[in-house]
Amino acid sequence: MMRRAADHGYGPAQYAFGLALLNGNGAGKNPRLALGYFRQACDQGMAKAAYMAGFVYATSAGDLHDPELATRYLEKTIILAGAGSAYARDAQALLLSLTTSK
Asked: Is 0.90 surpassed by the pTM of this model?
């Protein structure tokens, strides 16, 4: 049911299903597909989905690792969540780690 809701454009379900796919909870583990759901939820204004997209791009190995996309989604997290929020603080810390690892 969660996937059906996610596929019908319900942002909270897109985020939740993305988490399930990322962690392999109740669905097969598929970080690439999880990213798609996080990005869709982000497009609907969900800061936590923007953060998760940025996190996956920042911390994944191989072809999912993309510092430019990580930066874009982490910056969007700060905008969506507000500068003083916990998500914004986490996003800023991850952005800092991206810039210091170059």
From this structure: yes
